[in-house]
Each structure stands twice: as structure tokens, then as C-alpha cells.
Backbone:
């Protein structure tokens, strides 16, 4: 009962401070985040061209999160969290101790996003019994040629077999784990939207159509869907820009930070290369970092000139896409 009250009070305090900050322009925060993203690893088995990890453009070090660090994170934040995303850059199921993280976070609504190449009949049972709330599997095509145009080195049949294994295990053990196919809509696969809907229904999964982020500006024309409702960019003159007026606010700064594999706290999931490090959990508590001067200054910059921050100019916050 006390824990429920504590979590609710934190929610109300965080929400109030966010709204008040928008109105007053004063970047104050009350309470702790409602959700976090934790990067288990930034290694990946695929070579997706618009992903810094896969494309090899990432400049920060590669590695795997220490379970002891994760214990520290959960120990401090569990009383406040409504959900936990165990992914950022890289493939989380590549972590040699992947299932130990699910055990540590069992009491929190936990979501994992994977490219699906490490789900099989041997570990499907373990996944659905782990307490995992949602498993998101990327499947960006309905045939090998289309799928691998973006998911370089990927095998569509391995992914589909993995999805079948997990949905069958769900039924067998009456698991509450939700399985969702995520389909990044781009120029090469937009004609397969109807087919992916049919496939998701056949496999017994949820489906999310997602606009594709392009990190290399010269490649936007290569990937931008022909149907504008699927794309997050528009052509203005000779330049592509995000379909957003980039309002001077962002809830992620008050509710949802990201922690990299080596313990760096960064503002959000758009900071792929950890350019805006707010603090290091190997040196400080999360609370000290969350309420620290770097975060206060960064929140203030969001409230006064979000369009001046490079990563924010490719962000979907404030963007309403309809499919």
C-alpha cells in the first residue's frame, strides 16, 4: 500500500512540475522518472544502415552492462518506475547474462525490443515465464529481399520462426507477455503494409507501424515513403525536415531518461552517441544526477530553444503521425 502511494505521489509531483515548467519557463523537477531505458549492450549482429550501432558510425565505446550496475539502478528507482525499457542501441539478447536482467526487473513492467534472431524454441519458454511484459520484434518486410534491404545480415525466416516459438510458448504456459511486431515503414516496404497486417494476425501478435528515423541526411530520399502519412519528414525547398514545429517542451526530460551500458545517464533515446551526458552512475546516485546542474541547464535549454539542439531536430516528440 505504501509503495503504491509513493509511486502515485511521484507521478503527481512529476506531472505537476512538468506542466509548471512549461507555463513558467523555470526548469524544475519534482520526484523521480516514471520510466527509464537501460542499454544492455550496444553491440549488434545486424548492420542496419541508419542505426549508429549497425552502420559503424557510433563513436562511443562498445560493451555490456554489468548486472551489479543494473542492481544499483533498480535498487534506487524501482519504487517510482511504471515501466522499464531494456533496450537502446544494439541487440539486448546478445548480452551473455540477458535473462539475469529480466530476473532483477521482474517486479517492474519490462519491455524488450529485439531484432528476433536470438529467439528460439529453447529459450521461448524462459522468455514467457520471465515476467516480461512486452516483447517487440522488428520485422520490416514480408520477404527476404525487402527485409534485408534494411536489416543487413538478417534472415527473415529465423525471425518468423522465433515469433512462432514465442507465441506458441505463450499459449502453452498461458503467459501474459505481449508480443508485438514492429514494422519500420520506408520506401522499399510501404507496399507491404497490408501483407504485414495479415502476417501479424496469422502469427497472433500485435502490430505497430513506425515511421523510420534517418540519421544520414543524404539518405532521406532513399528511405522516405512515397505516402506522406508514413514518413516523419517533408521536403521544404531542397531540404528535408521533420514534420514538427519542435515546441519548446519535451516530457522525456521529466519522465524518461536513458542509461547507457556503462552507466552514463543521458536525456533520451535520441542521443544515440551519448553526446549529452548528465552524469555517471558509477560515481553518483541517480537522484543526484537527476537533480544536478547539468540536467537543470539542459531542461532549461529545451524550454527556451529546443530547435537549437541537434538531436531534437530529428525527434518525433510533438509529431502526430496517423496510419
Residues:
Amino acid at each position: 500500500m505504501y509503495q503504491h502511494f509513493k509511486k502515485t505521489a511521484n507521478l503527481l509531483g512529476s506531472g505537476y512540475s512538468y506542466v509548471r515548467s512549461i507555463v513558467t519557463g523555470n526548469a524544475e523537477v519534482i520526484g523521480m522518472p516514471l520510466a527509464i531505458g537501460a542499454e544492455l549492450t550496444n553491440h549488434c549482429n545486424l548492420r542496419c544502415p541508419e542505426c549508429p550501432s549497425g552502420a559503424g558510425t557510433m563513436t562511443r565505446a562498445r560493451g555490456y552492462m554489468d548486472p551489479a550496475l543494473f542492481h544499483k539502478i533498480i535498487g534506487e528507482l524501482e519504487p517510482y518506475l511504471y515501466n522499464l525499457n531494456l533496450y537502446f542501441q544494439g541487440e539486448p539478447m546478445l548480452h551473455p547474462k540477458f535473462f539475469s536482467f529480466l530476473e532483477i526487473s521482474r517486479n517492474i513492467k519490462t519491455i524488450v525490443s529485439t531484432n528476433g534472431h536470438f529467439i528460439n524454441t529453447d529459450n521461448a519458454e524462459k522468455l514467457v515465464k520471465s515476467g516480461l511484459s512486452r516483447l517487440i520484434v522488428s520485422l520490416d518486410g514480408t520477404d527476404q529481399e525487402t527485409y534485408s534491404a534494411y536489416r543487413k545480415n538478417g534472415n527473415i525466416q529465423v525471425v518468423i520462426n522465433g515469433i512462432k516459438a514465442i507465441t506458441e510458448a505463450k499459449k502453452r504456459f498461458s503467459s501474459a507477455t505481449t508480443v508485438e511486431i514492429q514494422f519500420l515503414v520506408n520506401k522499399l516496404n510501404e507496399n507491404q503494409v497490408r501483407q504485414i497486417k495479415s502476417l501479424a494476425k496469422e502469427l497472433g501478435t500485435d502490430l505497430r507501424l513506425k515511421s523510420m528515423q534517418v540519421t544520414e541526411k543524404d539518405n532521406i530520399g532513399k528511405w522516405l515513403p512515397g505516402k506522406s502519412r508514413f514518413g516523419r519528414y517533408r521536403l521544404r525547398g531542397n531540404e528535408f525536415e521533420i514534420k514538427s514545429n519542435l515546441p519548446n517542451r519535451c516530457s522525456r526530460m521529466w519522465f524518461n531518461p536513458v542509461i547507457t551500458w556503462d552507466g552514463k545517464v543521458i536525456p533520451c533515446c535520441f542521443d544515440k552517441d551519448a553526446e549529452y551526458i548528465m552524469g555517471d552512475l558509477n560515481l553518483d546516485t541517480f537522484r543526484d544526477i537527476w537533480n544536478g546542474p547539468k540536467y537543470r541547464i539542459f531542461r532549461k535549454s529545451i524550454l527556451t530553444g529546443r530547435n537549437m539542439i541537434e538531436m531534437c531536430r530529428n525527434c518525433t516528440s510533438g509529431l502526430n503521425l496517423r496510419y
User: Anything to note?
Assistant: The CA atoms of residues 15 and 202 lie 40 Å apart. The first helix runs from residue 2 to 24. The chain has a mean pLDDT of 93.
